[in-house]
Design goal:
- The protein has 589 residues and is α+β, with helices and mostly antiparallel strands.
- A hairpin with a 2-residue loop joins strand 13 (367-375) and strand 14 (378-380).
- Helix 2 crosses helix 3.
- The longest helix is centred in the N-terminal third of the chain and has 20 residues, at 2-21.
- It is globular.
- The two termini are 42 Å apart.
Length: 589
């Protein structure tokens, strides 16, 4: 029996080893990509920075005697197995682009994995990125054609050097040139995002990192590892709960509550974005925590007279999808390899529920507005005839939880059934009658609420859902706002007036027979740092205070929802052939 078990284990190990060896071809086949044109060889080199620090770098060469353009990738997440799942994905990218005719320079940023120096997130990326570009241009194999590519942090490092005049193309994916607005969203810290970033950085590539198998296990159990830290008080000590030690850059980011704080100014690359001259291709996702920042970056480039491309798909953060990967490859081949102008400057986006790609010359596309009114516990398309009030209590000792949506939590992100969440007493639910025709909601919805609250320091979280014929309540988009004494609705020690909540942009078809649902609450824990009720410096506060809330509706107190509707469908592109092509493999990046 032992011999059979041992033989089975050896067979599994052999199959895994073979899969890892041929991972580029396997990934290509799984994702429906064209096979590579070239074999790939890899060289490891040390690249010196301006201060003499040397960074560990792998160069992926196509096995070809021809000249090839260069693609720079810089990452804090490692390369290959030692970087966990993200490291494996990075290795795939290196092999993918090298196999299709690019020399890929993939570098561990300062202080990560084998690279020398001390790692401080975001701080050194401009200087080190510039030094790496200079090094690339001195190499015999570089003919001057250089582009950049990368996800998330690997996108941020591109913004840090995007004003380099010699770049042929820049492809920042699911990221932001201005991290302050991404982290401090609508008055509150995106707390879970900060903790998950801290966790993934800690389990790989640091002196504290454990063995590879334990690190993989921690990566797969990230939610269980992170959630206890979200309840720490004071909040500044959540790093102690998560990792058992203080992490200075994490604490500094919580301290920097104002967007113009020096902590954020040093790593804000908006002015470099505005000075850039390289062609750009931005990729965003409807369920990505950097969605709004990606759209803002795109709009800022357009305002500067540039012609960036933008692709918005139905994917979550770090998801590899054949659609964007094929389009990015074509863009890089055009601009970096061939020096051709972009074939299109239109924005291309996926209409969820219709399974179609559409294009528009600007965002949001031309449309009409549909107003839906809160009426009792319903949503009505006519103004209510009589007044109604509904109440709930927000208790920071049992904060209203957040579920699904644009998270780094791969176990619970994306579009999911919210019915269990909607049973809570601190969430008001409003549901329409079944629709008599399809609605295409494209753009940022907006909720206007007439509210009362017993204290002046409160939050409002609004979520738009569709209720399908099975009764599932599937989240579409949501929005959040933090209220303080300077808000127009605050009257002395209470809130009493109108509060507007802008929901995140979306593109969703709700079909005839389905219903629209709106959730109203005063928390989304731990996505947003919970409101403790006193307005103290939130990272250090320990006092907690509950708030009684009332939402009013009726002809005189018109709490309502404004839905941006697509005016026409003349720009419809190819249909997606099967739902499986929409839901590709999820990989954190």
């Amino acid at each position: 029996m032992f011999v059979y078990v041992l033989g089975a284990l050896l067979l599994i190990v052999a199959l895994l080893a073979a899969a890892y060896t041929f991972r580029a071809r396997l990934f290509s086949r799984v994702l429906g990509l064209t096979p590579p044109r070239f074999g790939v060889r890899i060289e490891h080199v040390w690249v010196p920075m301006a201060d003499g620090t040397e960074l560990s770098t792998q160069v992926f060469f196509p096995k070809s005697g021809d000249n090839h353009p260069v693609l720079l990738m810089r990452t804090p997440y490692g390369q290959g197995l030692k970087g966990g799942l993200i490291g494996v994905v990075n290795n795939f990218y290196g092999r993918f682009f090298a196999g299709r005719g690019f020399i890929v320079v993939q570098q561990d940023v300062r202080g990560r994995f084998d690279s020398e120096g001390d790692f401080v997130p975001f701080l050194y990326e401009r200087g080190d990125g510039q030094a790496t570009l200079k090094w690339i241009r001195r190499q015999d194999w570089c003919d001057g054609r250089v582009g950049t590519f990368g996800h998330s942090y690997g996108g941020f490092v591109q913004w840090a050097i995007c004003d380099d005049k010699g770049l042929s193309a820049v492809v920042p994916i699911q990221t932001s040139a201005d991290l302050a607005t991404a982290m401090h969203t609508d008055g509150a810290v995106q707390f879970e995002l900060a903790l998950r970033f801290l966790h993934i950085l800690d389990i790989f590539g640091t002196p504290h990192a454990e063995g590879l198998l334990r690190a993989f296990r921690k990566q797969m159990r990230q939610t269980a590892e992170v959630m206890p830290a979200t309840s720490a008080l004071p909040i500044i000590d959540s790093d102690l709960t998560l990792l058992g030690r203080e992490v200075h850059y994490f604490r500094d980011s919580l301290d920097a509550a104002k967007l113009d704080d020096p902590f954020w100014r040093h790593i804000n690359h908006s002015t470099r974005r505005d000075r850039s001259t390289a062609p750009m291709f931005l990729v965003a996702g409807w369920m990505d925590p950097f969605l709004r920042e990606s759209l803002r970056d795109h709009q800022a480039l357009c305002d500067q007279g540039k012609n960036p491309r933008l692709l918005i798909g139905n994917w979550v953060h770090g998801q590899i999808h054949r659609h964007w990967l094929n389009e990015v490859l074509a863009f890089l081949q055009d601009h970096v390899r061939d020096g051709k102008p972009s074939r299109s400057h239109d924005i291309k986006y996926f209409l969820v529920g219709a399974d179609r790609w559409l294009t528009t010359p600007s965002w949001p596309p031309p449309g009409d507005e549909q107003t839906v009114y809160l009426d009792g516990d319903a949503l009505a398309f006519d103004v209510p005839r009589g007044p109604t009030e509904r109440e709930y209590l927000y208790d920071p000792t049992d904060p209203t939880p957040h579920y699904a949506g644009p998270l780094l939590d791969l176990e619970n992100c994306g579009q999911r059934d919210n019915r269990e969440l909607e049973k809570r007493a601190d969430i008001l639910v409003y549901t329409s009658a079944p629709l008599t025709h399809d609605l295409d909601i494209v753009g940022p919805p907006q909720a206007t609420l007439q509210v009362r609250a017993s204290i002046p320091h409160v939050d409002y979280f609004v979520r738009l859902c569709l209720v399908n014929e099975k009764g599932e309540s599937l989240n579409i988009t949501d929005g959040f706002v933090r209220i303080g004494p300077d808000h127009p609705a605050v009257r002395g020690d209470v809130v009493d007036g109108e509060v507007t909540v802008e929901l995140w942009p979306t593109a969703q078809r709700i079909h005839k027979g389905e219903r629209i649902r709106l959730q109203v609450s005063s928390g989304a824990h731990p996505r947003y740092m919970r409101n403790l009720g006193y307005g103290d410096q939130e990272a250090y506060a320990e006092r907690l205070r509950s708030a009684q809330h009332t939402v009013r509706a009726g002809p005189d107190a018109q709490s309502r929802l404004h839905l941006p509707l697509l005016r026409e469908r003349a720009s419809v592109k190819e249909p997606v052939r099967a739902p499986a092509e929409v839901d590709a493999d999820l990989v954190p990046a």
